[in-house]
Write a structure and sequence with these properties.
Elements (H helix, E strand, L loop, with lengths): L11 E10 L15 E8 L6 E3 L5 H4 L12 H17 L6 E5 L8 H5 L3 E5 L3 H9 L4 E2 L5 H11 L2 E7 L8 H11 E12 L1 H6 L12 E2 L2 H9 L3 E9 L5 E8 L7 H13 L4 H27 L4 E4 L3 H9 L10 E3 L16 E3 H6 L4 E4 L5 H7 L1 H5 L3 E4 L5 E2 L1
Parallel strand pairs: 4-5, 4-7, 5-6, 7-8, 12-13, 12-15, 13-14, 15-16
Antiparallel strand pairs: 1-2, 2-3, 3-9, 8-11, 10-11, 16-17
Amino acid sequence: MTNCRICNAPLNEFIDFGRMPIANGFLAPEQTDSEYFFGLRVGFCAACNMVQLIEQPERERMFNENYAYFSSISVRMEQHFKAFADMVLRDYLGGDPFVVELGSNDGIMLHNFVDAGIRHLGVEPSQNVAEAARSRGVNTICSFFDEALAGEIKAQNGPADAILAANVMCHIPYLHSVAAGMKSLLKPEGVVIFEDPYLGDIIENTAYDQIYDEHVFYFSVSSVACLFEQHGMEVVDVLPQHTHGGSMRYVIAQKGKRAVSPAVAEQKRKEARLGLDRLETFHRFRSEVEASRDALKAVLQGLKAEGRRVVGYGATSKSTTVTVYCGITPELVEFISDTTPSKQGKLSPGAHIPVRPYADFAAAPPDVALLFAWNHGEEIMEKEAAFRREGGKWLRYVPKVEIL
């Protein structure tokens, strides 16, 4: 039996998605024969409430010079990270502050600190997006953050007022080294502020496509608290976010250095009501996932039988879990439209559905668009209002399978 990465108690496996490729591993047709697969299985730790992958591929397979996701493609995410940066600037920085961001991608958040004249450093392991950040004037090193790197950063720059991360911490299996590095790098009154998809929202919305290779952890307030308590730190505030279909922002400080918001205890009580501390909740989730899979496959087969064209919208990491787990092939979804140049002309991981430019979607709109990028649904619906006015339909599967 596999043990928990956080507290070493035995894990209880509750769902197996089968063989799965690298979610962002879009590939050329000649690469299909050598495509990498691993077993996508998920377990729950009853001791510390951490939900996590049983197995995760080597980090270099996921984060490298060909990383496919650039955060700045979304206007809404630009706005979100500006608000995040503004909060940090307003509430958490003192004189001559120094800010570090883990997994800083193309500088979507740190450029706000550049504009404010704040000393900063981005730590980004994927070379191509790190170079994009540098082109925006963001100080960025291409590396993986851990305790050793934290020591090097502190020696060169001094201690940090704030260490930030967004949709990054859930990617890192060696969180004890990260937490220890954060503690050593922080000023005594400094804070760690990070946000990731929230386990409660994943369970409530049956958002199983949040589960893929990069996301090794699925956080709750109680599990995050358990991690940082082992390093003399504590959760002092939690702030729910709408991004990525429901996220949570955690504020962490050195133990006893900052007042703890009542929101922390309230969110833990809510988690108990949701059953995030009980294995039966996750067995129920598995049943709901299986029902969602069967319903989506049935709708797509019905549309095909009616002779209606279906095109995917957004070649996301999440779409890989859905297409492979649900057995969605190019016979059911003609192609996936995406605006990211590095994905265009390639095949989706595992299912090998062609990825084509957005211009192809606009030039010959399908009867039905399968909304893979549902977490950007509001932004997309605004952009594609004409598609719907002219008779186009949307097929979504979170929180339930339905045609809009």
